[in-house]
């Protein structure tokens, strides 16, 4: 006769889950998997735990995933390991909750870090849903600076070179996951700090045996070249779209229902996602900013809160996202969150979503021209032809010392002229920052002539590199009267940007800025040394 079921198991599932949460089985912070020698307390056989480093074992500079600038550690209580020892039924449910509802992390700096993961039972691995693997890395290049061999935020070592001996262990981990996981169950974040493309290829090659993943993000720990970034993106896309053996035998089933709809219907559906801005603030809402060749987050005008976790560029990709002192989280944040995962579902969905993303938004480029060029070179040729509106914001230091920037600017615009669909492209040249720089400090005539020479050089290269441009808008920081002169020089004497060929310009700067400002004449008038271009 079977023993009577535990009264606890007779409760409804949602009640039991709530009790598990109060018992701290569900944790906001990721659970770090470490060898038993570095665990804080003992745990039942087959279950290394509680999966975090003790203060005694963490040497100076070692990785502590729950420490931020040495000021705050994870305050989660110890895992209730006693729940695993009551009976088989409760053990099984506790195991499913523990591994199915929490995020686990491997910080791989030694071979024994992977060996600890292999101690986990097959039942536990089958229930695993979220895994973060950090391989000798800074958490995220856009969020963290690194110096003196360690991350300034979480003290992660960034220059250890022990990867050679860890390749076999990583391969065994991937094979273990492949045997234990069902398709479309695991969310994987792979955070790596590789120093060459050969190492990266060896790491990714071991992951190809994994089943199709529910989500996959690959973050590079340092600056990498476009080839490495592109290969990481393709690897993530492959792991997200990898068909199961059953679907490979039936290609019709392998397609998502959306893929069976007509092209125009699919585009219309994508228009209702955040790939296209649908809010009331069209002037800024549909703008996507790129600085020094990297996408940067921007605060939505709809968001009434000063900062939130989506708007901050600091520690967004830290393992522990809670309790950060320099950012606040608001559930009411309305910041636009691009659904980039749509680009990873399948090649067809990538093509459809990319067309909506790049053709309906304004991309604002700023910073280094060479970094912007490297970023654009990493795009597929067919993707580059989807851009419809691009803006270039010039810093005062760029226009002031234009002789040092001219060569890289010409290389960038020559690339745009060769690979973009110029006949459908709106180009905006924006030097408005020059006005604010000159407002703060008074510059003499030599500086003003340098700015004028920079403006005229930019216009000449634009006309030379982009013949047949669809629309062209100029926003100057100085000499506002030259805006229409430059636009007509590039587009032709009959061109009026306020009407536009496709995108009309609201007004020229001289129509907007008040003549009441003290230096109105210097800002607005065409300089006396101007000659026809």
TrEMBL record:
Pfam families tied to this protein: DUF7730
All copies of domain DUF7730, residue ranges: 258-407
InterPro entries: AN11006-like (IPR038883), DUF7730 (IPR056632)
Name the UniProt record assigns to this protein: DUF7730 domain-containing protein
Organism, as annotated: Clonostachys rhizophaga
């Amino acid at each position: 006769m079977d023993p009577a079921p535990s009264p606890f198991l007779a409760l409804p599932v949602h009640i039991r889950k709530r009790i598990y949460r109060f018992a701290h089985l569900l944790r906001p912070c990721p659970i770090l998997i470490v060898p038993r020698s570095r665990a804080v307390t003992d745990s039942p056989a087959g279950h290394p735990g509680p999966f975090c480093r003790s203060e005694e074992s963490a040497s100076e500079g070692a990785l502590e995933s729950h420490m931020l600038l040495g000021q705050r550690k994870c305050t989660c209580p110890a895992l209730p390991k006693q729940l695993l020892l009551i009976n088989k039924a409760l053990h099984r449910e506790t195991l499913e909750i523990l591994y199915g509802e929490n995020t686990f992390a491997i910080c791989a700096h030694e071979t024994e870090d992977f060996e600890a993961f292999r101690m986990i039972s097959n039942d536990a691995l089958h229930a695993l849903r979220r895994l973060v693997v950090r391989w000798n890395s800074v958490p995220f290049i856009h969020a963290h600076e690194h110096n003196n061999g360690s991350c300034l935020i979480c003290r992660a070592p960034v220059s250890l070179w022990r990867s050679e001996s860890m390749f076999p262990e990583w391969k065994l981990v991937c094979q273990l996951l492949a045997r234990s996981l069902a398709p479309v169950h695991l969310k994987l974040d792979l955070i790596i700090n590789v120093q060459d493309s050969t190492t990266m290829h060896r790491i990714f090659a071991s992951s190809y045996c994994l089943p199709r993943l529910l989500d996959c993000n690959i973050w590079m720990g340092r600056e990498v070249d476009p080839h490495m970034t592109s290969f990481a993106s393709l690897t993530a896309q492959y792991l997200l779209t990898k068909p199961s053996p059953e679907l490979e035998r039936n290609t019709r089933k392998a397609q998502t229902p959306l893929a069976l709809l007509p092209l125009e219907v699919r585009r219309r559906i994508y228009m209702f996602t955040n790939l296209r801005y649908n809010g009331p603030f069209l002037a800024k809402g549909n703008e996507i900013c790129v600085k020094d060749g990297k996408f940067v987050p921007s605060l939505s005008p709809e968001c009434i809160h000063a900062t939130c976790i989506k708007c901050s560029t600091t520690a967004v990709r830290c393992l522990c996202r809670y309790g950060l002192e320099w950012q606040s989280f608001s559930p009411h944040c309305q910041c636009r969150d691009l659904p980039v995962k749509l680009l990873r579902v399948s090649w067809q969905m990538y093509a459809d979503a990319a067309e909506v993303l790049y053709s309906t938004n304004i991309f604002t480029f700023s910073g280094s021209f060479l970094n912007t060029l490297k970023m654009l070179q990493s795009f597929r040729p067919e993707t580059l032809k989807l851009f419809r509106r691009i803006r270039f914001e010039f810093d005062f230091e760029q226009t002031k010392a234009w002789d040092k920037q001219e060569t890289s600017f010409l290389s960038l615009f020559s690339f745009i002229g060769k690979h973009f669909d110029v006949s459908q492209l709106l180009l905006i040249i924006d030097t408005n920052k020059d006005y604010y720089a000159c407002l703060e400090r008074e510059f003499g005539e030599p500086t003003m002539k340098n700015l004028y020479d920079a403006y005229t050089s930019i216009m000449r290269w634009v006309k030379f590199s982009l013949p047949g441009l669809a629309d062209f808008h100029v926003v100057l920081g100085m000499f506002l009267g030259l805006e229409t002169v430059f636009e007509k020089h590039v587009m032709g004497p009959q061109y009026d940007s306020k009407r536009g060929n496709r995108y009309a310009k609201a007004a020229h700067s001289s129509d907007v800025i008040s003549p009441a400002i003290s230096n109105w004449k210097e800002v607005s008038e065409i300089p006396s040394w101007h000659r026809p271009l």
